[in-house]
Amino acid sequence: MDEKKLLSRITIDSEICHGKPVIRGLRYPVENMIELMASGMTISELLKDYPDLEEEDFYACLLFAANYLRAKEIYKVAS
User: Fold this and answer.
1) Beta-strand runs (E) in 1-79
2) End-to-end CA distance of the chain
3) What are the residues whose beta carbons fall under 8 Å from the beta carbon of 27, sequence distance 6 or more?
4) pLDDT tens for residues 33-69?
5) Rounded Cα distance, 17 and 44, in Å
6) Which of 12, 24, 57, 64 has the fewest CB atoms nearer than 10 Å to its CB?
7) What does the mean pLDDT of the chain come to?
8) Residue 3 CB contacts under 8 Å (≥ 6 apart), including other chains
């Protein structure tokens, strides 16, 4: 699938989830979906838990994260 088309599934709106990137404005933060995939959940399992999402939404999350990490500089954030 076209990267630009995939990334269009990720939206940022200051009125939704405090401006965090979400899937198609549906209040599913990208970071939460990445965490679930990192925990070992498969896309098939996630689709069962989130029936209003589509397989491409999860690929969009991964692509968004990969692009974010391509930044030239990454700063440590206070924890």
Assistant:
1) 10-11, 22-23
2) 36
3) 16, 17
4) 999 999 999 999 999 999 999 999 999 999 999 998 8
5) 25
6) 12
7) 92
8) 63
**Mode of pairing for the β-strands spanning 10-11 and 22-23:** antiparallel
Give 3-69's CATH code, choosing from 1.10.540.10, 2.60.40.790, 1.10.3720.10, 1.10.10.10: 1.10.10.10
For residue 26, what are its two tokens?
Answer: 């549906």
Least Cα distance to 22 among 64, 71, 66, 52 occurs for: 64
Helices vs strands, H then E, count in the chain: 4, 2
